[in-house]
Design a protein that fits this description.
Length: 170
């Protein structure tokens, strides 16, 4: 008799209860020093991005600012005649870092949102580095599957907007 048959022939005991569910493994708790260090790393990274954006001169065409970093022109524009999903991001960041938020928004809406998010992350990272606060951990808990879909939708809408503005339709 196979083991499957043996199990099938076993009498059912109604007093047997199901095993308790197994809890998902939890990430190790980061202490105050770890939070401070992580906050400092985030703040420094965000500061570097924003300082670099402030150093650059935004392109008047709404894209191409990244070429100041010795990067090649956008291949999508060269080959397909339309901007890629990230076209205008560097220009948008440069406008935002210069304090021209409306120009940043009109250049690339997602770039504007990311530039503001970078500034907020700089603030939160600095605050966490200074105080050891858990505020960043609490805010990270708000990132859900629904939030991810919203971000994807906003990214697609920003790309469509960029295509329309590149073609002079907006």
């Amino acid at each position: 008799m196979s083991s499957i048959d043996a199990v099938a022939d076993m009498p059912m005991n109604e007093n047997v209860t199901a095993a308790p569910p197994i809890a998902a493994p939890q990430a190790p708790s980061v202490g105050r020093t770890g939070r401070r260090l992580l906050g400092a790393i985030v703040a420094l990274g965000c500061a570097a991005v924003l300082l670099l954006a402030a150093w650059m001169t935004p392109s008047e065409s709404g894209l191409g600012t990244h070429q100041q970093l010795n990067m090649p022109p956008c291949g999508w524009v060269a080959v397909m005649g339309m901007p890629c999903p990230t076209c205008g991001m560097t220009t948008s960041f440069a406008h935002a870092a210069d304090g021209n938020l409306l120009k940043s928004l009109l250049t690339q809406p997602l770039g504007f949102i990311l530039a503001l998010s970078t500034a907020m992350a700089l603030f939160l990272g600095g605050y966490t580095a200074a105080t050891g606060s858990r505020v960043a951990i609490v805010l990270a808990g708000f990132w859900t599957r629904r939030t991810t879909w919203w971000v994807i939708g906003i990214a697609l809408a920003a790309w469509v907007y960029k295509i329309f503005s590149y073609r002079g339709l907006v």
